[in-house]
Amino acid sequence: MNTFGRNIRLTTFGESHGPAMGGVLDGFPSLVKIDFDKVKEDLARRAPGRRAFTSPRKEPDEVEFLSGFNADGVTLGTPIGFIIRNRDQRSGDYAGYQGRFRPNHADYTYYKKYGINEFAGGGRASARETVSWVVGGALCRQWLAAKGIEVKAHFIETNSVEEAAAAGDSTGGIVEGIITGLPVGVGEPVFGKLHSRLAAAMMGINAAKGFEYGDGFSAASALGSECQDIMMPDAEHPGEYTFTSNHSGGIQGGISNGMPINFKVYFKPTPTLMREMKSFDTEGNTVTIPPKGRHDPCVAMRGVAVVEAMALLTVADLMRYL
């Protein structure tokens, strides 16, 4: 399954160490003027090698749009095709992994499913895949901004990334997001609830292990009297209502209630460690996994741009025909 969305659909292609990553965004509305410099800004936030404690892989992440725009950068309503060429793929860095299953990676499951050991960067299991998601999200961001809808996220450090990196280890982290400006009524019960669509989008991100919105996991140990969102008339919009609190995270019955949508995504530690690890190979032999390769000590740091992209794609998909 390489397609995300129903009304606005992003289909992606490419492998981590192939010639390019890319995608086709279909169903995007026409007559949207796109600022391509802003697309570059979103890509730069996800790109490796731009700041400390991220993968040293040097990728310019320059997107080439192949279709879907006129000469003035206005969308045509036709499929938007694009590619991002891989410039710094070094498969030799992964030579010591050939035929070996790296602990907590997708090597074993992909091998059992497809019969191929894609040792160089993990192929499509690599987080390199998310670069295409950010392109799609960046386009949706500009369409939604014209409707007053914004998506922002930030990184929450759970352990010292610097200390983990210095020890050849890795750490997990949290990305907290917020969606503002969403009108009342977004979400499609029963099986297209806003929070279930967001959860599916976030749990599709590499290394994501948990999702919550509103009070989230803490609600399980709370009393009902502690979680009430009391309604009150909206002074700025006669006949409408707002709420004195937001325990619901802006969603009730799977439908947006006009309050901000606040959520968190929990990321596991990067499974690649800069220390030897024991495992098995495709022949069933015990092997040692060498401490090689390029990786992020904490994937959640660059995951901020990816979380935003997936939230933008989800909201745009639900808003397309409202």
Q: Provide the low-confidence segments as ranges.
A: none
Number of strands: 15
User: Within the largest sheet, what's the order of strands?
Assistant: 1-2-3-5-4
> Helix-strand pattern, N to C?
EEEHEEHHEHEHEEEEEEEEH
Question: Helix proportion of residues, in percent?
Answer: 10-25%
- The helix count comes to 6
Label this structure with key terms.
22% helix; 4-stranded antiparallel sheet; 5-stranded antiparallel sheet; 6 helices; alpha+beta; 15 strands; 322 residues
Tell me what the structure shows.
The chain is an alpha+beta fold and 322 residues long. It is built from 6 helices and 15 strands. A 5-stranded antiparallel beta sheet has the order 1-2-3-5-4, with helices on one face. The protein has a 4-stranded antiparallel beta sheet with strand order 6-7-13-8. Helix 1 crosses helix 6. The mean pLDDT is 93.
Helix and strand topology:
Blueprint: E1 3-4, E2 9-13, E3 20-26, H1 36-46, E4 63-65, E5 80-85, H2 107-114, H3 130-145, E6 150-157, H4 161-166, E7 173-180, H5 194-203, E8 208-213, E9 231-233, E10 241-243, E11 251-252, E12 255-256, E13 261-267, E14 277-280, E15 286-289, H6 300-319
Antiparallel strand pairs: 1-2, 2-3, 3-5, 4-5, 6-7, 7-13, 8-13, 9-10, 11-12, 14-15
